[in-house]
Amino acid sequence: MIAQQLLNGLISGAVYALFALGFTLIFGVQKVLNLAHGGVFMAGAFIAYYAVVIGLPFWVGFLLAVIASGLIAVLIDLIAFRPLRARGHANAEFAAIVASIGVDLILISLAQKLSNTKVLSFPFGTFPVEFFRFWGLRISLLQITILATLAILLLGLIYYLQRTTFGRQIRAVAISERASALLGVNSTAVYFQTFFIAGAMAGIAGVLIGLSFNSIHFLMGEPYMLRAFVVVVLGGLGNLPGAVFASLLLGMLQAMTVAYLPPGLSDTIIFAILFIVLLFWPNGLFGGSRISVGVGRQ
Question: Model-level pTM?
Fold first, then answer.
């Protein structure tokens, strides 16, 4: 049924969007591909899992995962990115990518050691298993939660960036850190906020995806990193609405190709589209236009 496949794809796209929002936010402000984002995403799922296992309510574990993931992302900035920014190397962006890969590998190794390379699962009943039917379509309570979470996070992030003083400071630093410093903007506080928000979003995505597939693994962030890269390129680097649109498009395209085409063609088609987009729109589908809620440098 095409409508059911489109709904499944929409939910998959929402999952990609949850992951990609934080990834593209950091790129928009710092112009760095933070390849440790997958490690933070995985850490969020691990924290929620162990909180539930020791007997804490799920909502407490969820809050712990969100806060801890945000702090881990801030710590990554302090250790890996801030020293590079302070030294002002000509190739600082490339060095930051290498540094983020190193941090990602450290997080993966710690999780592998902690889990003894096992695939972990939330205890049965951690999240209510309920299904609803409307217009002949079937959707679970968890899938509704994922869609609602994406909508709340996107609207909240747009409001934060557009309507608050902190958001205006973030956009100012994204445009020019030097000019914003002359105007009295504390770039250190801006980077703290940006990395905390991005890490918290990664933690939320990690918990929801861990629940969705009931599978938590030390390498669970790596496939999403590859998808997130496709999403931010298609949507326009640093463009939040573009990233969400590209995520939903990617999810529906993937669902349709898996359902109606021979196995194994899904990734081929997705990356072929990425190649074509890069040929004709090097800045992504929305990268060439000025989007008021984008945070990318100009």
Answer: 0.84
